[in-house]
Amino acid sequence: MTTDSATAVEADPAARVRAVRHLYAHRGDRATVWDRAYTVYLTVVLAAVYGVPVVLLVSTTKALVPLESAEAATPVLCLAAAVAVWGAQLTGRFWGPLVLKPFLLHVFMGTDLSPTHYLGTIARRRLTYAGLGTLLAVCTTAFLLTDLFDDPGSTLLPQGVAVAAGIGAVTPVAWLWGQARTVRENVLLALAVAAAALALALLGRSAHLGGNGPWLVTAVLAVAAAALGRSAFRSVRTVDLARLARESARAAEAQTFASTGTLHHALDLYRPQPRGLASALTRPDGRLRGHLAQGAVRALRTRGRALAAAVSLPAGGAVLTLGLAEPDSGRATLYRLAGAVAVYAGSGWVGEAWRGLREELTLAPLYGGRWGGLPARTLAWPVTAVAVTVGAASGVTAAARWPLDDGPAATALLVTASVVLALGARFLREMKTDLPVELLLPVVTPLGDLSALRVFLWQFDGLVVVLAGVLVMNRMPSTPVAALTATGAAVWCVRAGLRRTGRPLRSLLTCPGRA
C-alpha cells in the first residue's frame, strides 16, 4: 500500500470511527467472556423460573383479549401500535439510541468529524436490534394475551404478524425521533399518532374494507416508518451535543447504580427537577402554607410527573372498578391487576412527598427534630390526592356500569382495599435505601445459585406486592376477608419500609426530639 493510499484510508471518516471504536472495544477493563456467560446464565434461570410457568398457565386458559375477526382486531392493533410509538418517544427523551459511553463521546466530539459519521452507524445498528426486540416482544404479548396464534390456519394470523412487523419497524425510528427532535415536535407526533389510530380503528370496524383492516394498519405503519426514519436520521447531524453529553453521563451513572443492585437510585437520576412556583410554598407573611397546599404546589413544580399522575390515577380507578364490576374471569383479573398497577405508579408520580419522607427518616436533622406531624407533613397530599382522584373515577365508572354484580358497598370496599394496598406497596418501595449485603449470599439449589432472584425481588418489591396482593384478594371467599387481607399486607409494607430506614413504627407519629 502506498503512502497516499494509506493517508486516504486514515482520512476516511468511516475508517477513523472504526479505529476509535476498535481501540475502545479492546480496552483493559472491558467485560470478559465469563461476565457475559454469567449474564446469560441469569437470564436463563429467570426465564425458567418466571417465564415457563406463565407460558404453561396461558396455554391452558382462555385468552384475555379474544380476537374474533379482523373487524374486532383492528382497534386492538391500532391501540397497540399507538402505545408502542408513545412509549418509544418517551424512552427516547430520557435514554435514546444516540447515548454513548461518556469517554467515547468525548473523544468523538474532540475531532473534526460530523455527528452523522460517529452517531449514524451506531444509531442504525441499535435501531436494528430494537426493531427485532420489539417484534419479539409484540409477538410474545400477542401469544400471552390474545388467541391470535391458537388457529394457525386462520386468515387473521398473517395479518396480525404483518402488523407486528410494522410495529417493529416504526417503534425504533420513533425512539430516535424522541431523542433527536424537540419536545414540541414530539407532542405533535403523539397527537398525530392518536388521530391516526382513532381514524384507522373506526375505519377498520366498518364493512367497507371487507376484513382488510389489519392490512391497512400495516401499510400505514410501513409508510410512517419510512417517513419518520428519513426525517429522524436527518436530525442526527444537528443533534445538541452538549445535551447528548449530559444524557450519556447520566446514563453511565444509572448503569453503575443498576449494576450494583440499587435500581431505585438509578431511577432517581431521571426524576425531573422541580421548577418554578417556589414562592407559592409560603404565605405573604412568610409562613408555610398548609400541608395539602404545599403538596399541591410541589406536584405542580414537576409538571410532567403531575400530568402522568393525572392520567394514571383516574385510569387506574376506572379500570379497577371495571374489573370488580365484571364476573370473575381472566379479563376481570387483568383489569384489576392493571388498575392496581396504575394506582401504584400514579401514587409515586403525584408528588415528591415520598422522597421527602425517606430523607427525613434516614438523614440526620440539621436543626434538631420536633415532636409529631410527620404523617401530616409528608403523607397528607399523596394520600388525599390518590383517594379523591381514584374515588371520583371509580364512582363515575360504577354509575356507568350500574347495577353492579357485587353491590355498591362491596365494590367500594374492594376499591378502597386495593388503593390501601397500592399505597402500602409504594411506601415500601420509596423507603428503600442501599441493597442489603445479606441478599448477595449464595442460595445453592439444583438449578444453581439463585441469589440473583432475591435481588430481583428486592428491586421490584413494590410491584410484586401489588400483583400478588390483587391475586390473593381474588381468591378470598368474601369481600371483608379480601379487604382485611389487603389491609394486613399494607401494614406489613409500612412496617418493613420503616425497618429499612432504621426507625420504629412510632416514627410515623413522632420525630426525635432536639439533641
From TrEMBL:
Taxonomic lineage: Bacteria, Bacillati, Actinomycetota, Actinomycetes, Kitasatosporales
Parts of the chain that traverse the membrane: 38-58, 70-88, 127-145, 157-178, 187-207, 213-233, 306-325, 337-357, 378-402, 408-428, 480-498
Keywords (A to Z) from UniProt: Membrane, Transmembrane, Transmembrane helix
Name this polypeptide is given: ABC transporter permease
The organism of origin for this protein: Streptomyces zaomyceticus
Domain of life: Bacteria
